[in-house]
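Before drawing any conclusions, I looked closely at one protein's amino acid sequence and its backbone structure tokens, quoted below without any editing.
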Amino acid sequence: MIPEAHTPTAPRKVPSKCSNQNRKIGRKKLHEIEQLAANIHEHCAKAETQLLVDLGSGLGYLSEALLQLNDNYLILGLEADEQRVISAQQRCEKLMPQKALNSISYRQEFVSADAQCRDRIEAHTSELAQSHGLSPELTTITMAIIGLHACADLSVSAMRLFLTMPQVRSLLIMPCCYHKLALREGIDDLVSSPFVNFPLSSALNKATANLAVCCFNRPFLRLACQETSSRWRKDSAAHAEHGHQMYWRALANAVSDDPEELVKVQPKAQQTTHDFNGLCLRYQLHSRLTAQLLSWRPSHETRFRQLNERYSEGRGSRLAEALCCLQTSIQKLCENLLLYDRLCYLREAAAEQQLRVEVRYEQLFDEQVSPRCQVLIAKKL
């Protein structure tokens, strides 16, 4: 049972005034940008926030949407990928008016919560504030940390920055890609969690202290990232085709059982026949060490015949889709456990630092459009 403190609210219809200027963005991404930008704008108006730090800013879509809602914001976009930083700057110069252009600063930065990263963020924000006539003393500036698609450990770093930077008064961030959490070094037992940042809270650590085997592994986090059950039900007409695709991908991986081999889907190839030749046309074999293209071998064809006979007459496709149904049925349980662990951790860490905070999750997006629809909202009181 999910504790009441974490029960997600229904998705709230926040009217959005932003009109993204790049209509090549997919429906899902545009929905997320518009809804999160409008929600951030609403919170920042109440808190009189002046400066926003956009973690994992990517190509700058969220920053641009926010400036369309309020061109008085100052926004620092931090992104680890240098090429994305360059592309975001180029988009700004092409699409944004001069006033807005001067209000955004994109910097390449691998965000962590250590002191060196905090110092660099403070230096960047101080420079941005000073360039607009504000005091470079950040204690006089109200800041918020925001992020759309804060993958893996980034959302945890955002929580710690929120706690350790006094000038940051609000946090609005959407976590995702839990299965990419960093692994700890030297874990060789079955009881301890292998991840650096999960579990985080003492509450969950105590609750699982007596387990003989730790179930918090990579497959568990992948389950938390699965499509939601509502999306699975919505796509009922496509289940047969999806099961077929899942089965053949699994079959290709099973045929190549060598750990040094990697199976990749041919981007544009169409599987016209359901035999070994069709599999070779649809999937490529590569070396994991050299990335060199490899040839399918007679031993692969023998294994293909054995496996495909075992799952003949459509049994493989039906089994694959039944497995997807099972995964979506327990997806929300896995994700809620992980999200509630973070909420508890944030409250525990704030209490240790004698900070009064208000923390909650809000289901901001329509989960039939965006499966990762929970936004972590925190503010210092």
